[in-house]
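Justification of computing resources. Each target in the renewal requires a structure prediction run like the one illustrated here; the chain below, 91 residues long, is used simply to show the kind of job we budget for.
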Amino acid sequence: MKKSLVTGAAGFIGSHIVDKLIELGHEVVAIDNESANNDLFYWNPKAKNYKLDICNLEETQHLYEGVDYVFHLAAESRIQPAIENPINAVF
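Resulting structure tokens:
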């Protein structure tokens, strides 16, 4: 069984990738800090879900162990916060 990690996994696009990977038989590790200004986040209960910030290496580093694929979708979802604090948009 392949193991995949998805960052930004509770957002619209990330959650669809998580769903498809699970459908394809992958073990999925899902990370999202729920910082987007969404009304709803989509966590698949069949994934191993973590509400963490990927910028915090100490909290997330162990989640990458044994992972075959990483789908990196974590990003600043709105332009205004990126303008106000551009260093957060770099990671």
